Task: structure prediction
Amino acid sequence: MPRMSIAEALRQAIREEMARDPRVFCIGEDIGIEGGFGGAFTVTLGLSQEFGHDRILDTPISEAGLAGVAIGAAMAGLRPIADVQYGDFLFCAMDQIANQAAKMTYMSGGTVKVPMVMRVPVGATRRGAQHAQSLEAFFTHLPGLKVVAPSTAYDAKGLLKSAVRDDNPVLVFEHKLLYGSKGPRSEKGALSPIGDVPEEEYLVPIGKGIVRREGRDVTIVGKLLTMYRALEAAEQLAEKGIEAEVIDPRSLVPLDKELILASVRKTGRLVIVEEDNLTGGWAADISAIVAEEAFFWLDAPIKRVSAPDTPAPFAPVMEEFYVPSVQQVVEAVEYTMGEG
Amino acid sequence: MSELSLPWLEAYRTMLLIRRFEERCNALYMQGRIPSTLHLYIGQEAVATGVCAHLRPDDALFSTHRPHGHALAKGVAPRAIMAELFAKSTGCCRGKGGSMHVGDVNVGMYPAIAIVGANVPLAAGVALAAKRLHEDRVVVCFFGDGAANEGAFHEGMNLAAIWDLPVVYICENNLYAASTPISAAFKIEDIAARAAAYGMPGVVVDGNDVEAVYEVAGEAIARARRREGPTLIEAKTYRMCGHSRSDPRTYRSKEEEAEWEEQDPISRASLRLKEMGLASDESLQAIEEEVTSVIDEAVAFAEESPSPEPIDALKHVFWEARDA
Result:
């Protein structure tokens, strides 16, 4: 089976969907310029030669404009894949996403659809506070948007293809340290997981999580980069005789909450780890769901491991402190085991 | 000059329908029978009418928080608009939209966009789709003077211009953004002058003269249909009522209102009709009666229609193919 990086898997998904459906096109900043970057993280590299500049459409630096154009194009029968370079820039397009894309189907009484995909790189990567924020939780709070966060090449391809075929706006959050971007666009300290991607066509359904590692003692929920932190912590814990189950939700909206609840009912313990800030975050929401629906199965308080309530710092030593570490996950698990 | 000439009687009827429809809405609102807020279009009827007279049902229209006139001129059924204002399940948005979001995509009107300026890039997006799908339809996008100071206006206008998109932007400069006069919001005389900054034609027109609007809109729409790019039209007009139903209009003078009263687009149109011998007092009265009966029917339909079930609030958050 071919093995590839997430950037390659995403590129393959885009290529296949564009070949399958002439309505699909990409729109974004620096995505198709000859000699350019192929998007901030090389995902669309080479695609403009293949599909032409009408379908790999470069825009000025104009996030509200390109988001609005993508939404309008989706309302009129196209299937745009928009790219905003850095997740933080979504705030420039906030009205278009929050008031237009998310609410259009609803306020039209179900008569207008917005089949748009927005690809969003997130994660702290030594660029300081305005190119770093993990925003996926933010957008789970806007009814009308679907939100996915693939952490493997297999899921990146399968979820992006599902997103393109979905009749709703779907935000695809991608982590900068997981892309495996090469050359001058490679990232310091990147994890860049290489994964199996089947040659035959497949989709990963939006709304289905996955158990990455089975275990009986504690459930750890992690997404994007923190899923890998959770897996590494699980390996360390196994050496101490603690078997952690690691769950990767993959989709945040809709959420496969049954997968999390079933695991917690088995293990009796829950640790949620995410790179987003603590307050009002996604980990709080998962905690609330489990507290409401699986409280009587819990043997210990739920623990959240997240970034502190600060903007992302620049200095590598501070950034390392900011992003949840394997050690923090291990400690959180030990706390729930009464060993902290 | 456009090659076509204004279908005068039809235009007069549309303007009158908008005027009488909204007067009725206002009366019903005062009686507490319409729960929706209302932003009345009264005084601006010539703009929607003159522009929409050129449009085909498959041409797309974007509107604002003041959309009733655009909806009626584009052909949204009066009864469906009225039922929406009455918050009924038979409304054009099934009770999910209200006054500020009326629309019907089946006649080319997207739900009206009540965030000022936000429709400018959306309209560019629909125009991009039309161009990419090789359809010869065009998009028109209405907004007020207030929108021209929004960031989305700038970004949308620029993208429409660089890609030569088939969209016509119509700024209805009614002199006030809520209570703020244009003198406090613009350093320039004409908003249309901003078109030059994007490299597109900008045209100023008397927005209370339906024939003049028809002519400039005809040229801009023909240009868009020929795929020669967007145009910004500034129609100078006047909002004869307040911003919304809770506006006592204490920020402008009675003298100013009286001056604009003289420029009432419907009075001007009826004078022209009679001057040209296209109508008599009797034939205008017949139009009046016909319009009244359409509105009576719309109100009766709205009143008799069922309310949505409270739990219907949970529907249509996401697209449901079977309900479309």
User: Anything to note?
Assistant: The mean pLDDT of chain B is 95.
